[in-house]
Task: inverse folding
């Protein structure tokens, strides 16, 4: 019997040591499913705003979000359009996370942004969505997305990339009393 206790104690010690030694960054992607944007994704930035009017903060945010600066003299309006796509991407990633599908934030956001920006009708919708959020003063809140055809396109793209659909929460019903 003593042997069993020693054996179990040894296993517990190995588990604790393993938890200390194995760092999360060495244990695979701890942020979820990694999505790679298409290598040949090209998009046209709408010709809006005055060239060169983007703030340094907008330029840095665009460069960080896309991994490059798409236009040398980007306008403030163009930068806002791109950053609206980033917010929309973050909103749908959050919805997938609530449904149990964890997507790596950095790669997922970039892939969704490229998906949105290569579809002019969806990008135009997302731009209007972002301007509406700004006008209402809700642009800093967690994005709430309207379930429409543009949402469905992005949703279907994510399902195709992750191979998983988020679980929808069960609807609560009131219990009937006898």
Result:
């Amino acid at each position: 019997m003593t042997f069993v206790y020693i054996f179990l104690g040894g296993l517990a010690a190995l588990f604790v040591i393993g938890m200390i030694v194995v760092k999360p960054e060495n244990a695979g992607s701890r942020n979820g499913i990694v999505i790679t944007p298409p290598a040949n994704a090209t998009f046209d930035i709408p010709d809006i705003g005055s060239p060169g009017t983007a703030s340094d903060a907008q330029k840095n945010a665009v460069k960080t979000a896309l991994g490059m600066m798409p236009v040398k003299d980007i306008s403030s309006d163009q930068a806002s359009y791109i950053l609206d796509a980033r917010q929309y991407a973050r909103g749908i990633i959050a919805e997938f996370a609530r449904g149990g599908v964890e997507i790596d934030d950095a790669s997922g956001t970039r892939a969704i942004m490229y998906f949105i920006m290569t579809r002019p009708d969806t990008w135009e919708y997302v731009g209007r969505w972002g301007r509406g959020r700004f006008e209402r003063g809700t642009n800093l809140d967690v994005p709430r997305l309207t379930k429409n055809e543009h949402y469905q396109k992005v949703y279907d793209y994510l399902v195709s990339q992750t191979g998983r659909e988020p679980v929808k929460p069960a609807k609560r019903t009131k219990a009937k009393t006898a």
Notes: Residues 16-30 have pLDDT under 50 and may be disordered. Residues 81 and 128 are 9 Å apart (CA to CA).
